[in-house]
Amino acid sequence: MKSVTQNITQRRTVQLIRSSGLRIALLFLLILSSVVPAWSQGNQRFDSLSFLIVSDWGGFSSNDQKAVAAAMGKEAQRIKASFVVTAGDNYHGNGVETSTDPRWKTEYEDVYNDRSLQIPWYPSLGNHDYRGNVDAELGYSKYSERWKFPARYYAQVERIDDSTFILIVHLDTPPFLEDYRARDAEYHVKGQDIGLQIHWLDSVLTVSKTRWKMVVGHHPIYAAAPKHGDTKELIDQVLPILKKHKVPIYVCGHDHVLQHLKRDSMDFLVCGGGAEFRDVAERNDVIFGVGSLGFLSVTVTQGVLHINFVNSNGMRLHTTEFFSADVK
Question: Distance (Å, rounded) from C-alpha 217 to C-alpha 215?
Fold first, then answer.
């Protein structure tokens, strides 16, 4: 099998649907469902894959952001991480203006400078990214070898061993929120077709034959936190697709907490502590929750997907495991 980049992009999907209809678009997705990235395998052991997930990390080079970055560097070295996934709010405030904005150096290159973090980064978009120039974030892929951002939403397939793969679907959640659409002068989301994105998500999950599946988006489907909490639009529009395809894990940020919830036969992981933290709430569906800086550390084998919640001191606060025998 060839080892090349898996980029199922919004732009290409739109072109296929418009030019040749849905059948060809689905065939295109089917062909790409077995393609994997080449560059993620430099640190990979033969029988496992490890990576980090961080969200809400655009912290204006604050001491808290730097503390999380330092802990990420140590953890990436410990687990031999192959890549980093972000769940959005890559730049807080009003995002970035251009692909050469000074914030790229001061808040990304100079902060995440540990040698172990010089690996591919696969970003997702958050609401603060939309307050800036999203195209500038996409465009930074031309300036940075490690910033891999092909489209506002896309699918990533990674090799675990010779016969096992994981699908990571990066959603673009800000356009789903009615509040942002009503404040388009601030969030610039109106031009995004959420119906097309839902159809794309359903298509990708339909054709994928990978053993493991994980969906990443900025906004929570479920979260127990005073600041934001559950997102009705995602419960109504995204959750039914995830349940239909028995996706076991949804990872998000937005709420600046570390939290693990279980509901609707799914696990919901919130890792919004990339640069600051807030209070967390208790609820019947909460397995673990704490107001803390931190991120997720993931190691997956053919049989087990293992996730640690890690704080800025490098302490593992909570561990959860998923077994392939339980994932249908």
Answer: 7
Q: What do you get for the CA distance between the two ends of the chain, in Å?
A: 25
CA dist 301 and 322 (Å) reads 10
Angle (CA) 150 58 296, round 5° = 80
Q: In the beta sheet, which residues pair with residue 92? A: none
Going through the chain in order, the beta strands assigned E by DSSP cover 48-54, 83-86, 121-122, 154-161, 164-170, 212-216, 249-252, 258-263, 266-271, 286-290, 295-301, 304-310, 316-323
Q: How far, in Å, CA of 314 to CA of 26, rounded?
A: 43
Q: Domain limits of the chain?
A: 10-326
Q: Are strands 304-310 and 316-323 parallel, antiparallel or unpaired?
A: antiparallel
Amino acid present at 21: G
Q: Which CATH architecture has domain 10-326?
A: 4-Layer Sandwich (3.60)
**How many CB atoms lie under 10 A from the CB of residue 191?**
7
Q: Where are the alpha helices (DSSP H) in 33-95?
A: 63-79
Reported as a single tens digit per residue, the pLDDT across 218-261 is 999 999 998 999 999 999 999 999 999 999 999 999 999 999 99
Instruction: Give the global pTM.
Output: 0.88
Rounded Cα–Cα distance for residues 311 and 271 (Å)? 10
Following DSSP, what letter does each residue of 214-279 receive, concatenated? EEE-SS-SS---SSS---HHHHHHTHHHHHHTT--EEEE-SSSSEEEEEETTEEEEEE--SS----
